[in-house]
Amino acid sequence: MVLEKLGSALKDSLSKIARSMFVDEKLIDELVRDIQRALLQADVNVKLVFELSKKIKQRALEETPPKGISQREHIIKVVYEELVKFLGEEKAEIKIDKTKKPFKIMMMGLFGVGKSTTIGKIAKYYSKRGFKVAAVGLDVHRPAAPEQLKQVCEKIGVTFFINKKEKNALKVYKEFEREFSKFDLLIIDTAGRDALSKDLIEEITSLNHYIKPNENLLVISADIGQAAQDQAQKFHESCGVTGVIVTKMDGTAKAGGALTACAVTDAKIKFVGVGEKVDDLEEFNPKGFVGRMLGMGDIEALLEKAKEVMTEESAEELGQKFLKGEFNFLDLYEQLQAMSKMGSLSKIVELIPGLGNLNIPKEMLQGQEHKLKKWKHIMQSCTKEELEDPEILSRSRIDRIAKGAGASVSEVRDLLKQYRAAKKMVKLMKGAEGQDPNKLMQKFKKKMPKGFKMF
Question: 15-41, pLDDT tens digit by residue?
Answer without folding.
Answer: 777 777 778 888 888 888 888 888 888
